[in-house]
Amino acid sequence: MIALENSVVHYGAARVLSDVTIEAAQGEIIAIIGRNGAGKSTTLKAMIAVLPLQQGRRLFNQQDISHKSVEHISRLGVALVPDSRRIFPNLSVMENLRMGTLAHKPGYWTIKRVLEIFPRLQERIAFGGDQLSGGEQQMLSIGRALLGNPKILLLDEPTEGLAPLIVNHLIEVFGLVHKQGTGIVLVEQNLRVSMRLAHRQYVLDHGTVAWSGTTAQLEAQRDIVESIITTGVSHGH
Ligand SMILES: Nc1ncnc2c1ncn2[C@@H]1O[C@H](COP(=O)(O)OP(=O)(O)OP(=O)(O)O)[C@@H](O)[C@H]1O
Hints:
alpha/beta; AAA+_ATPase; transport; ATP binding; BCAA_Transport_ATP-bd_LivF; nucleotide-binding
């Protein structure tokens, strides 16, 4: 459904992604894992055309969308929850959610449904965005993205820095999102989270795919994958 094919991305003169091929099929959960600076966030930005491809192709449902804009890709039903969360600090929780409905497409997710899965947001409904904890901000950012009823949700380190209870709650929420038929591309540093959620996993190292396989294969080769993630030594595919 969404894919990068042999993609190369530069920041100025620096090559940050080399020959990256990553694909998420319809309704699939894939995880992109790797160390700090491996190129995970860059991959998500390249998928939604925030960053241009120097080489390779960007695909949506087998169609070449390499030259389409961020807005076009968003209208196709691809939503990003960035690691910065980007909620509006001066707007209330309710107002932030209403911003999410501006691009509302009819579907499962409504403000009522979002508040049911995140009761914490219901309790904080009149609070300003800047009065929320990190976990609450993450819930709001995810809820806002869901209100567009995306076909595919890109999540950039959604559990980073959050308490284990909140991480478990988010894992349940992502499971529910997937059950509604939404595909998920999850960028994670926490292998425990990616192993619980994803069907397939890609390990990035120095801007290339150093390993990819199913979660069962990763379980069997966990030592190899962990050594790539911790030391950055690539052991091949
Ligand atoms: N705006 C930028 N300008 C130049 N280089 C950048 C920029 N953003 C990221 N980079 C570099 O690109 C490489 C990949 O960064 P990226 O953020 O994709 O990594 P990451 O795997 O998501 O890591 P992190 O977990 O730290 O976000 C790093 O070497 C980083 O320093």
